[in-house]
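FORM 7B: Structural annotation worksheet

SECTION A. Query
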Amino acid sequence: MSQIDPRSLLPTLPRPFDPEAASRLAERFGDRDPACRAFAASADGVALLGALGGHSPYLADLAVREAPALLRLLDRGPDEAFAVALAPLGRAEPGAAREAVGAMLRQVKRQAALIAATADIIGLWQLDRVTGALSEVAEQTIDFACAHLLLAAAERKELRIAKGTTPKAISAGSGLIVLGMGKLGGRELNYSSDVDLMVLYDPEAATYHSDRAGACYVRLARDLVRLLEERTAEGYVFRTDLRLRPDPAATPLAVSINAAIVY
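SECTION B. Predicted structure
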């Protein structure tokens, strides 16, 4: 486990553009618990929280809400902190209630965004690592969301899906194909990027009634966008755009593989 010496990072941290906002973050951060209070009062804490809160209200809110993730980054380094942030995607049950799944996905996104931004600001991660990390969290949250929605479709007797507990196992043979396009496809997501997706399906793969496949997968695509975009007090996962599919003005949200090939 590598230790990061915050003192070596202080000269590289930008001074707060808004000192008052930086002070407010230090106060809010310190109100969480004794460990946060001690860090906020230290020279290292003043410098780091100033670099976050003095420039970005969004990062200030993330730092307060996900303070353990920020302290974990300083103790264990950004790579391990990022892995811990994504770990719930490997432990959670895809068949859980929609509300619980949405809350988990939003927390994963919050922690991952905070870790990536902090590692970027401090200079611990280069640009390709930052964009790769943001793309990775998008890929994994989308995979989990798809598995959750496939299980819901199976419960409605719309799809036959493979038995399994992981997103990959659940999705295998489901007929669902979700392609990352644009910046996500190139693993170049930035902090404000939406995710461009193309949803395709094989109507013969898993449906009980192939003539109803279109409606099933269109509903799944619509629910995927809703799950990723829903805004609550906890934030949202990703803004999602399905308009890069073939002829978006004339085609449904999910397009059959054959129709896409013909196009």
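SECTION C. Observations
The mean pLDDT is 92. Residues 127-155 form the longest helix (29 residues).

SECTION D. Sign-off
Analyst initials: ____
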